[in-house]
Amino acid sequence: FYYLIQKKLLPPGSKLIIKLVSQKTSDDYLFIPKESVVWSHGKQWVYIRNADAPKFLRKPLENPHETENGWLIKQTNLRDGDYLVVDGAQLLLSEEFKYQIKNENED
After folding, report:
1. What is the C-alpha to C-alpha distance for residues 105 and 107, in angstroms, rounded to an integer?
2. Is the pLDDT of residue 98 over 60?
3. Closest CA to 48 of 37, 56, 40
4. Segments of 1-107 assigned E as strands
5. Quick one: which of 45, 65, 71 has its CA closest to 56?
6. Could you read off the pLDDT of 52-89 as tens digits, one per residue?
7. How far is Cα 107 from Cα 101, in angstroms, rounded to an integer?
8. d(C-alpha 47, C-alpha 78), whole Å
9. DSSP one-letter code for 21
10. Mean pLDDT score of the chain, rounded to an integer?
11. Comparing C-alpha atoms, which of 25, 27, 30 is closest to residue 80?
12. What confidence tens digit (pLDDT) does each residue in 29-56 have?
């Protein structure tokens, strides 16, 4: 951080001890384990099991904050109670895009 001092009371290079005060927000955050996150097109994605049908939906992580064991995200397009795929997310991504790969034998 930089702070502009209007008066010449402190010599240049002096050390300051400051206290930063931030306003608390009421945002809810969710923890996403790193095993659940797949990368595609430069973005992080997770798969959610659809409760109404036997399908999996790929959803982007919006503004994720990386932690040691995963990601923290604001609770926006993911909700408490969603069934997050933890094991096999990379396999689902491969299945989703496998039909875009041309078969060399079909010329």
Report:
1. 6
2. yes
3. 56
4. 29-33, 38-40, 43-49, 56-60, 65-66, 70-74, 83-84
5. 45
6. 777 888 989 888 888 888 888 887 777 767 788 888 88
7. 13
8. 10
9. -
10. 79
11. 30
12. 788 888 999 999 889 999 988 777 778 8
Q: Which residues of 16-39 are buried (b: 16+ CB within 10 A; e: fewer)?
A: eeeeeeeeeeeeeebebeeebbbe
Q: Per the structure block, which two tokens stand in for 52?
A: 């109404």
Tell me how many helices (H) and strands (E) the chain has. Answer: 1, 7
Closest by Cα among 57, 53, 43 to 96: 57
**Domain ranges in the chain?**
38-100
Sign of the CA dihedral running 81, 87, 74, 30: positive
Whether residue 11 has pLDDT greater than 80: no
Q: Residue for token digits 């099991």?
A: 49
Whole-model pTM: value is 0.64
Max CA separation in the chain (angstroms): 79
Instruction: Look at residues 40, 31, 35, 42 and name the one whose alpha carbon lies nearest to residue 58.
Output: 40
**Chain length of the chain:** 107
